[in-house]
Amino acid sequence: MLEKISVSNECGLYKMEDVKDIDCFIATTPETREIANNPLVMGVDYTMRLEKACRSILKNLYSNGFLCLEENETIIFNILRGGLNFGLREALYHAFGWNRHGCSFISAQRARKDDDPEKWHIIENEYAKVYMPKKASIVIGDVVATGTSLEHAVKALVKEAVNQKSHLRSILFFTFGGTRALEILKETDSLCRKTFPGYEKTTLVYHEGCFTVPDENTPLSIKETGTDLVCLDALMAKEFVESKYENPAYPLQRCAVYDAGSRAFWTPEYIRDVFGYWSEMKKKAENGTTFEDVLKERFPLADNKRFNCVDLRHLCEKQMSELAALID
User: Fold this and answer.
1) Ordered domains of the chain (ranges, CATH)
2) pLDDT tens sequence across 6-32
3) If phi over 0 gives left and psi between -120 and 50 gives alpha, with beta otherwise, what is residue 77?
4) What backbone torsions phi and psi does residue 78 show, to the nearest 5 degrees?
5) pLDDT per residue as tens digits for the range 252-261
6) CA–CA gap between residue 278 and residue 317 (Å, rounded)
7) Nearby residues of 180 by Cβ (< 8 Å), 6 or more positions away
8) Computed from CA positions of residues 148, 151, 155, 160, in that sequence, does the dihedral angle turn out positive or negative?
9) Alpha-carbon distance values, 285 to 78, 300, 314, 318 (Å)
């Protein structure tokens, strides 16, 4: 269940009522709705929209008494490269006029295990540049599916704080993600309370919804297990659900963000990924699958009557044409 905290044109904030131990919110903004619905939002446009969304959410958290940050104690902890998508350094500047908050960096690249492709491990974690003031409030952003990178990063963060004799006050985490983000943040909160006396709070902010990460048993005909963030059985802001009716392609998207790294920093790879999905969907349409079939599969809570007789093959061709125009 979601408790409405505040709603405006710039930002809606809902608290997840059944979550204990940490503050957990679903935030909705025009920028993140566009990101999660429209894969043509990419590159600098994508990261600028995400930064603006985080800026609005920071202001909303502050005005409602959920933020405990001080400029000279705040560190942006960037998990490379996904963490750079969120623009949190700039978001704090634009939200509060801050100029002296710090940034730290850690690499955490995951990959599927050769002997079990449904399991993941860290293959690159050699780079780290971590600054810690005597008292530190940490702000992090990352896309979380399996949570492999996040779990590695927060353990390294706590270890580094201990090594530098820093005292952690709080962690604020922004994500496009699923339930694994919540599990890891609750574990981290418990660890921080044991390690740092007087640790104040952990706050988790989901952009638009707590999405489902499909596995082998998830009933989707097209899926990237351990990677996709899908709307099937997800807990979502009502504004986001309503936005799905703006375009019949929106409720059919394979993933809320697809590959966030390539979407921001290497768009040719990202475009090929999205194009490939719609190409697969077109083949299904040519074999008799209808728009109604896919809508029931991917977004079953939608009211099909609000879409006017959508031809799935034509919809796929339109998506592919728009993407193909961006391929050099």
Assistant:
1) 2-211 (3.40.50)
2) 999 999 999 999 999 999 999 999 999
3) beta
4) -90, 120
5) 999 999 988 8
6) 8
7) 144, 145, 146, 147, 150, 213
8) positive
9) 41, 18, 9, 13
